[in-house]
Amino acid sequence: MSGPAILWFRRDLRLRDHPALLDAAAAADGRVLAVFVLDPALLEPSGAVRRTFLFRCLRALDEQLGGRLLVLRGDPVEVVPELARSAGAVGVHVSADTGPYGRERDAQVRQALEADGVGWHPRGSPYAVTPGRVTKNDGSLYKVYTPFRRAWGDHGWPRPADSDETSARWLDGSIHGGVSIPDDEVHDLPLPDAGESAANDAWRSFRESGLHDYEGARDRPDRSGTSRMSPYLRWGCVHPRTLLADLAGDRSQGASSYRNELAFRDFYADVLWNWPSSARHNFDRRFDRIRLDWDRELFAAWREGRTGFPIVDAGMRQLLAEGWMHNRVRMIVASFLVKDLHLPWWWGARHFMHRLVDGDLASNQHGWQWAAGSGTDAAPYFRIFNPTTQGEKFDPDGAYVRYYVPELRGIDGKAVHQPWKLTAQRPEGYPQPLVEHAAERREALARYAEIKNA
């Protein structure tokens, strides 16, 4: 009898809608060895919050597999071919990794496997449309979201794959050694429930109670208006193709808006695929010459929620307390860092990746470049968020600020967004604004003008 197929889980920690699982089962008469590799190159830069959520997702997957998930630790370039040799595997099946590190790693793994006569079989990716497949009619690449969104919709995506835990005869990998799934590193943060079942429950709840109001509520951090699906999409506990299939035929504003958000996720992954250097460098290289400040004390005040601007401080404290931040507030705090404090966007991006449970390289880095003006947006120069008016607009009663900034709980209504104007209710222990927004807005525009025509 020929050997088993290896299914190497990465950002696809689920059993439903898993094309690579079906391929693996078909290749080896159903005999599949499930494996996950704890790769230090990926784990060490991740924050404790994201690692903890990953470990919980792995435990959930292992339970679905009846305790048969083989967990290895080490460099996959060495570990995966070694496992294939010891198991006599006929092939290794994966969902394709489209990030810069994953592409290079997979090329090396494939080379090592093929030298041993073992097949390498990628199928699908963590995205509705695999990055690199949406191009203009002349073959050129999209740099702006809106035309990409139209082409993405026209391209379409496959139906969800008909797979589940019964699609394979899962082999016990314990004879190949392995390590235990690490213990949680974070215990005091309210992280979402982990795993595929939790992802499906969260999606079902959102569709039933949140989708209808999504278009109007998603920008309000004082409400539960977002789907909170991003941690599950990050680790593939559910595939966006599944969500899109559930939304098929729904022409409501909420469904349309949600499809647009999934398209944005695919767009940023596509940008990273086509321009891998954009993970670390300005997409618009003119911004390499912009004047930046390098004040670590200002950065620490921003990071700890001590800027004196309530909506900014509430967002940064939410991140520290929950490992998550509302998306509208992410844009506000990012704009404040790069356009009020004039600090490098990559400082903020690195802090987010370290703290966010849903930290995703493509979305995070390009979202930060959108805020900085150095990314794919066609007209970024004049977009400078006023943190006070943003707070008054999207947290009109001040409930979000009062929840995360206890020093301001004695201030009623929207006055909480300008505590420096108060005399009788002046809060004790809350800092004065670090900067004057109007002056820093003028300074940011002056710095942009210096490079605009470079």
Automatic annotation (TrEMBL):
Q: Which reaction does it catalyse?
A: cyclobutadipyrimidine (in DNA) = 2 pyrimidine residues (in DNA)
Pfam families per the record?
A: DNA_photolyase (PF00875), FAD_binding_7 (PF03441)
Say yes or no: keyword Membrane present: no
What InterPro entries does this protein's entry cite? Answer: Crypto/Photolyase_FAD-like_sf, Crypto/Photolyase_N_sf, Cryptochr/Photolyase_FAD-bd, Cryptochrome/DNA_photolyase_1, DNA_photolyase_1_CS_C, DNA_photolyase_N, Rossmann-like_a/b/a_fold
Q: Which domain of life is it from?
A: Bacteria
Q: Which Gene3D superfamilies match?
A: 1.25.40.80, DNA Cyclobutane Dipyrimidine Photolyase, subunit A, domain 3, HUPs
Cofactor(s) recorded for this entry are: (6R)-5,10-methylene-5,6,7,8-tetrahydrofolate; FAD
Kindly state which keywords UniProt assigns to this record, in alphabetical order: Chromophore, FAD, Flavoprotein, Lyase
Photolyase/cryptochrome alpha/beta domain segment(s): 3-128
Q: Which family, according to the similarity comment?
A: Belongs to the DNA photolyase family.
Q: Would you tell me the protein name for this molecule? A: Deoxyribodipyrimidine photo-lyase
